[in-house]
Design a protein that fits this description.
Oligomer: single chain
Shape: extended
Number of helices: 4
Length: about 80
């Protein structure tokens, strides 16, 4: 079996390791299974023309807006969590 070097941020590794533990797998087997599932996927949501147009409109709207502060972003994130 060949080995490959893959660079991932530490925070991503922690998330991957936690998911692998939850699935009862090693990091390698978890990544292999996830990568193969993605490679075999026939269609992705962004491949749908309707979804792609909606995403493009969303991005254009976001680019036209004035930036918001971190405090405003946190307030918006927390809205509805109660």
């Amino acid at each position: 079996m060949r080995k490959v070097l893959v660079s991932l941020p530490e925070v991503d590794l922690r998330v991957i390791d936690a998911a692998a533990r939850k699935a009862g797998e090693t990091r390698s087997s978890f990544l292999r299974r996830a990568a193969l599932a993605e490679a075999r996927r026939v269609r992705r949501p962004i491949d749908d023309p309707t979804v792609r147009r909606a995403f493009e409109r969303l991005m254009q709207t976001a680019e036209r807006r004035d930036p918001i502060s971190t405090a405003e972003a946190l307030k918006a994130r927390d809205r509805g969590r109660r």
